[in-house]
Amino acid sequence: MTIYYNFAYLDEGTKKKIRRTLLKAVAIPGHQIPFASREMPLPYGWGTGGIQVTAAVIGPEDILKVIDQGSDDTTNAVSIRNFFRSTTGVRTTTSTREATLIQTRHRIPETPLHAGQILVYQVPMPEPLFKLEPRVSETIALHAMADYSLMYLKLYDQITRYGRIAIGYEYPVIVHDRYLTSPSPIPAYDVPKMHMSPALQLFGAGREKRLYAIPPYTRVIPLDFTDYPFDPVNTRQPCALCGAVESYKDEIVIDDAGNRQFICSDTDFCEHRR
Amino acid sequence: MSYVAVKGGSTAIQAAHRLVRKRMRGDPDAPEITPRQICGQMHLGVDRVMAEASLYDANLAAQAMLQAQGDMIEAIFLLRAYRATLTRFLDSMPLAMDTMRVQRRISAAFKDLPGGQQLGQTYDYSHRLFGYFDRLETESEIESGKTAVPPEPMTSVMDLLEKEGLMEPAAACAPPAENTQQDITQHPLLFPATRAQRLQSLARGDEGFLLSMAYSTQRGYGQNHPFIAELRMGEVTVEITPPELGFSIEIGTITVTECQMINQFQARSPEEAAFTRGYGLVFGHSERKAIAMALVDRALRAGELGEEALSPAQNEQFVLSHCDNVETTGFVEHLKLPHYVDFQSEIQTLRHLHKTATKDGADRV
Amino acid sequence: MSYRPVPILMARDLTLSFGTLRALESVSLEIYPGEVLAIVGESGSGKTTLLNTLYGVLAPGAGEVRFGENGELDRCVQTLPRQQLRHLHRSAWGYVHQNPRDALRMEITAGGNIVERLMAAGEKHYGTLREKALFWLQKVEIDPKRIDDLPTTFSGGMQQRLQIARTLISHPYLLFMDEPTSGLDVSVQAGLLDLLRNLVSEQRMAVILVTHDLAVARLLAGRIAVMQRGRIIETGVTDQVLDDPQHPYTQLLVSSVLPA
Question: What UniProt keywords are attached to this protein's entry (chain C) (predicted)?
Fold first, then answer.
């Protein structure tokens, strides 16, 4: 039995529905919009939200880049890239500069994005308040009233316990001075790249059935206290391959003695510098 | 570094998939199982895959079981993913359950009833001994008895009770018809959900999860006093009404299992006191799932019936958000994916805290 | 010119049923600025139902609750948008539950619990929040050293003090209290009542206090309303009602014939 699949897998009706939801998401920056997520041929939790967003917006002229943990060559990035290559036939690339559409899990590329590019984030849990308030009906009310004291309470508690805000990744942000938003589990180090980015940022949470967006040139402000400002931690070790100091690093254990090497997590950025 | 190699992910994946291909075939000297054999001899497994994938196609379900090497959740996932690509033409007409060609029908509430008890095929009362069924001959009249017309019509037990005023009216707990956004595969499920949306979620929900939830209501976590009014399994006709025709036409038959559950009565006043309903309907033959679904459906009606919802099975968001095994398995297993960027930020934060703590400690001394 | 005080909250003809049970039957009352009104009656008489209806978390079948701060009862609890009602609950009004665990966040430190309302109101300076938390701990007579301890490590009486600090930090002008001392030992009760009396007069709050304990009512309340089967059957100055009850039910209640 041969089975025929549409361009980018999903049928046109479904893609249109997702695009309409994305338009709504762009109109209300940072606000989560429910959508009828479909089962994709990849498991939930493995990027189905991002894949559906990419499938809905990708066209034959697009040049696609897929990264996971900053790298083009991690297993899941390869798998998703192959999926779109076989269902769309579009050109793929590892170059951040060349790509028109970038799907990512857990990182924002080091190379600054430019106008016209779309960055699609895979989001496991779109609701930034879910650990503090599991009832969806209640978090919806909190967003409606812009009541984010629960999240401040968490920050207060961390400063009290640890002497600083100790959120390393998935750092909560306020988008367009209104909605508390999850940046997806990117390191806090990446969060400033979201602020006033010239690129369109789209977020897809397949299992949780929510889409949201940050339009180009939108304010994205990390939550903090005036006397304990946002201050992400990053190693000052230079990259063992390209020598970059400012980039975000992977830590590689190189021997049994526990010696470590630091290399850029963004493989495309690193290769261009070598 | 074979798993998340800095380079070479593609090659590794290909090799992994070649291994799957090899294991899937098993012993090359043994004959390969065909989907037809699976449909014939493992039809209860096929039924489960169809039910939880919510796609009625036995041949595809059997293929999925083969490709999944017998991993049922993987097979369900495969069929679901295929279902998502299918274009929706029309909704079917509501199934006329009173016209079911019944293969099995029992009531635990009444000893005898119009239409009688009809056991059909069941493992109930069999001894779980290897070879137990081998000594039995398959008699031709039993074979034909499957489709024999019962001597009298099988009146619905719920209807009888409702006529007497002892059962809450079906109309009272039926979902509102005017809401068009009920199909949970076309519109996102939002909370609070309607009963129609809840029943859809449960119908495709994981059998094991529903079973445990249902069991918990019987053990004090959610009040319930259930009696099976009727459990039926048989074939029903599916009809659609194409707009250009304006009348309904048959497009096929499906086998379903239906459970109508009587539950404790509820009363604001003595004259209003009536039993309450729980409902289960599943593709194929799965009595366990239909009964569990009816119990959980009833538990989830707590709010509507003015009961205090204190137990997990009565919590709509808890049950509906966690009953779908395609969703749950994906997220639980995604922990296998690399998380080293997040883990790196955790390590760095922790190191930073240790460093600052040591410094502070020194200052204090 | 005679001074005529204007109420800050007024309920008219509140009626509420649970199924066939009439929980409130045509209840009317007023609260004036700075006064403490006790609602007393035996258990099941509708006291807490009335309190929750006034507070806006229960909707009456008939009647309305109007309120306003500036001498005008220009807003109605029942028609107030949910957002505004919530804002009211988090700032200008306060509610002290019988069980402090209903209000406290048990997994958050005492200090965090106290300052939550301030953060909701927009305070973004950690140092200021700490100062306020310490100030209020002292105010409710909890050792400031306990600021970073979890409420689970506190005694029942201390948890209740913590709840009070957490509520009063936004300086509400109207406080709703549901049996605030009844879960506590007698000796602890006395201290807490003393504290409440001082705070109430110092903060110039109006208080609606639900209690089954006439001694608590006598100590804290200027006025008293007696409830029986969903109705207010007698109301007046506390000493007058308790020393010279008019209604036969109040007479039984005062003579402790009825189990409260």
Answer: Lyase
